[in-house]
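User: Second chain of the day. Same drill as before.
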Amino acid sequence: MSDLLERLRGRGWRLTAQRRVVAEVLNGDHVHLTADEVLARATDRLPEISRATVYNTLGELVSLGEVLEVATDGRAKRYDPNAHRPHQHLICSDCGAIRDVHPTGDPLSALPDSERFGFTVSDVEVTYRGHCPDCARV
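Assistant: Same format as last time:
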């Protein structure tokens, strides 16, 4: 069983066939699918699943904090099931490919006290951008 399915089952979330398929599609490392990609893969597994069900399920998963919604440079939002392991994203500026990365060190320590303006900082998001190997060859 996937990590996401285990987490959802542990929360007592009702796993209908449609919800299960969406969770299964999102399973894996470095998964960052758009809603339309989730729909296409879910339809392959369960042809009768509707667009509304996929979109509603994704919205519920985000609301539950079980899936992250990743927005990048005006592109379609992507859904990341790696919601419980701290990580950053490496994004290809050309094709939009996204990989999870785990840099060492504390990114919060890079922000000096003089640049915090009295804020109590609770979270840091860092996005690395570049060109993936496929786009760099072109």
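The longest helix spans residues 51-64.

User: Great, on to the next one.
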